[in-house]
TrEMBL record:
Keywords: Antiport, Cell membrane, Glycoprotein, Membrane, Transmembrane, Transmembrane helix, Transport. The keyword Transport applies. It is found in: Cell membrane. The gene is Slc44a5. It comes from Machaerirhynchus nigripectus. Choline transporter. Choline/H+ antiporter. It comes from the Eukaryota. This is Choline transporter-like protein. The chain crosses the membrane at residues 21-44, 226-246, 253-271, 309-330, 350-374, 447-474, 495-517, 595-616, 637-657.
Length: 701
């Protein structure tokens, strides 16, 4: 990491470039072609209807056109109480017959009662029969045989469709859970059961149904207030632009006001602690120590001790001294950081098109997410139907074994396990393709992460190239090339796809490992092995740190690629050593930038949020008549606040990239040049003054 020698021909981003990391570029293109092929294969084999439509026990879709079930869109469970059994979690399938029906039951009834009265109440029999297996119409068959063969459900209960499945129609009456105003029901096997048993079977469905009605109201609110939400986001955009443009005048003022505000607040804290300490003098019990009174749940007890206030005062004095010392020793570096922030604002003023580049990144990432999600759904639904033996008897040795519904009745399973059936269980398969579906899903996730990181890398390299061309323009703005953003984008795609793909690949590998670790942690939550949990926790922490470090290195490597056009490894090494030679400046600039941009995001989101609050709560008289009538005014309000924060984040991410690029260029400038006529500085006059250099060749700042 030796400082670079002066190159009189160097004028910013080099134009006569060569392609870098060609092998990685070729691999990247091959992987993209493979990803497209995977999507096509998944599309051929997959069938999203398996997600959209429920599947009955015969492996047929409910509600599918041109089938017997075309008007039967809802799945009905014969005995929903069985859905509460742990078998559901193991087989992902409720161990009861499931049929497609046109509508859910609207009354309580049991097969025993209906069969007993079918002669003089045929309407009840006909109503109940629609929930039996298709074609069953034999009320003379004994109840025991009907229930054993699962020709009909033992009971029906008032239900309503949710996610195209019949679930009990729960409601609460005086705090008691009821179904159709009843708290108990007959289970059709001679027992009275409590409604709470149904609740366990359809666990959480009541909350989901409530959420559905809330969801409808929220949708209505969006439908009538979207116009005002867009206006709010437009105001946020204008405020973000204004904040960035004004930073060249206000960066220093904002920072110093905040710093002196913090010093003042801590100073007041010290005075208040001293006042409390002095005030408690002579009061009985105040001279006891914290050790004397031991652990107390009421914190106020400690505030009556002089020792507590003395400890607070010492801590605050320590913090105050550290801040003041840092300001004294780092004052020059803080001034450089503020000057770079102002310079960043000036650069964006000259290249305004950069502010809208995040839209390109957003669109690329949206395409990646859409392709990944569609491929994942098609892969997940590309199995063949798998049928398993479902037996009423718990001791049946064939239970849960795979079977073929075509030949099932010819086997001896029905003889050994009376009432056993071959019912649809899930989608899977035994072919080579189906065996490796999990691997394909992992590959899908990995390439998705790689492409997303590549889109971000492309954005960073493009912006870095544009801002570097601003810094290395000797006379600003006269020497800034035409269309700097477009030229930079072209250079990045044409020459450095391989390097950007290489950086994105390293990051994607680490992120995939993190995803796998999270998955393992989720799976092992139930285990009591504390060593495994501790090991996983350590690994998660290490890989999180590694990802943060790689993102920092990649970002600066892309800046060096944009300037010098070298390969990824060389650029990363040069950027790292350059930053290490200026490590204190890096730390100060990073923190000052983070603080000011965070302040900007809060100001934008908070300002627009307050405005939206006054508007939607009809507190602005001028617009009182325009306000739409809403179910929940917080729906558009939260949308505007979160949206404003994201809009500000989009603009400020460009600004952060600008400052980082200018900083690396500034460090390069210091190492290459000495400010003489032969080696003039490219930095602005304000930066030059802070460094206290005597000679400055005549040029515009």
């Amino acid at each position: 990491g030796e400082p670079r020698k002066f190159d009189p021909k160097f004028r910013g981003p080099i134009h006569n470039r060569r392609c870098t990391d060609i092998i990685c570029c070729v691999i990247f293109i091959v992987v993209i072609l493979g990803y497209i092929a995977l999507g096509v294969v998944a599309w051929v084999h997959g069938d999203p209807r398996k997600v959209i439509y429920p599947t009955d026990s015969y492996g047929q879709f409910c509600g599918q056109k041109n089938t017997l079930n075309k008007n039967k869109t809802i799945l009905f469970y014969f005995n929903i109480l069985k859905c509460a059994s742990p078998v559901v979690l193991i087989n992902l399938q409720c161990p009861t017959t499931q049929l497609c029906v046109s509508k859910c039951p609207d009354r309580f009834a049991t097969y025993i009662d209906v069969q007993a009265s079918y002669r003089y109440r045929p309407d009840q029999w006909n109503y109940f029969r629609q929930f039996c297996k298709p074609g069953f119409n034999n009320p003379r068959k004994s109840v025991a045989q009907v229930l054993r063969d699962e020709d009909c459900p033992s009971m029906i209960i008032p239900s309503r469709p949710f996610l195209k499945r019949c679930f009990p129609d729960f409601s609460t009456k005086n705090g008691v859970l009821t179904v159709a105003n009843q708290t108990t029901f007959k289970d059709g096997r001679g027992k009275m059961r409590n409604v709470t048993d149904l609740r366990e079977a359809a666990n959480g469905i009541n909350n989901v149904l409530d959420a559905r009605s809330v969801g409808m109201k929220i949708f209505e609110d969006y439908a009538i207030s979207w116009y005002w939400i867009l206006i709010g986001l437009f105001i946020a955009m204008m405020l973000s632009l204004l904040f960035l443009v004004l930073l060249r005048f206000t960066a220093g003022v904002l920072f110093w006001i905040f710093i002196f505000g913090v010093i003042g607040i801590i100073g007041y804290g010290i005075w208040h602690c001293y006042w409390e300490y002095d005030h408690l003098k002579g009061i009985p019990g105040s001279d006891l120590t914290v050790y004397d009174i031991g652990f107390q749940t009421d914190f106020k007890v400690y505030l009556q001790l002089r020792q507590t206030w003395l400890a607070f005062m010492i801590i605050l004095c320590g913090v105050e001294v550290i801040i003041i010392l840092m300001l004294i020793f780092l004052r020059n570096r803080i001034r450089i950081a503020i000057a770079l922030l102002k310079e960043g604002s000036r650069a964006i003023g000259y290249i305004m098109s950069t502010l809208f580049y995040p839209i390109v990144t957003f669109l690329l990432i949206a395409i990646c997410i859409s392709y990944w999600a569609v491929t994942a759904v098609f892969l997940a639904t590309s199995g063949e139907p798998v049928y398993k033996v479902m037996a009423n008897q718990t001791l049946c040795k064939y239970a849960n074994l795979t079977c073929d519904p075509e030949t099932f009745n010819t086997t001896n399973v029905t003889k050994l396990c009376p009432g056993a059936q071959c019912t649809f269980a899930f989608y899977g398969g035994e072919s080579l393709y189906h065996k490796y579906i999990f691997i394909f899903q992992l590959a899908n996730a990995f390439v998705f992460l790689w492409l997303v990181n590549f889109a971000i890398a492309l954005g960073q390299c493009t912006l870095a190239g544009a801002f570097a061309s601003y810094y290395w323009a000797y006379r600003k703005p006269a020497d800034i090339p035409l269309w700097p953003l477009f030229s930079s984008f072209g250079r990045a795609i044409r020459y450095h796809t391989g390097s950007l793909a290489f950086g994105a690949l390293i990051l994607a590998i680490v992120q995939l490992i993190r995803v796998i670790l999270e998955y393992l942690d989720h799976k092992l939550k139930g285990t009591q092995n504390s060593f495994t949990r501790f090991l996983l926790c350590c690994l998660k922490c290490c890989f999180w740190c590694l990802e943060k470090f790689l993102k920092f290195i990649n970002r600066n490597a892309y800046i060096m690629i944009a300037i010098y056009g070298k390969n990824f490894c060389t650029s990363a090494k040069e950027a790292f050593f350059l930053l290490m030679r200026n490590v204190v400046r890096v730390a100060v600039l990073d923190k000052v930038t983070d603080f000011l941009l965070f302040l900007g995001k809060i100001l934008v989101a908070g300002g627009v949020g307050v405005l939206a609050f006054f508007f939607f709560t009809q507190r602005i008289p001028v617009f009182a008549q325009e306000v739409p009538m809403l179910n929940y005014y917080w729906v558009p309000l939260l949308t505007v606040i979160i949206g404003s924060y994201l809009v500000a984040h989009g603009f400020f991410s460009v600004y952060a990239m600008c400052v980082d690029t200018l900083f690396l260029c500034f460090c390069e400038d210091l190492e290459r040049n000495d400010g003489s006529t032969a080696k003039p500085y490219f930095m602005s006059a304000s930066l030059h003054r802070i460094l206290g250099k005597k000679k400055l060749s005549p040029k515009k700042a």
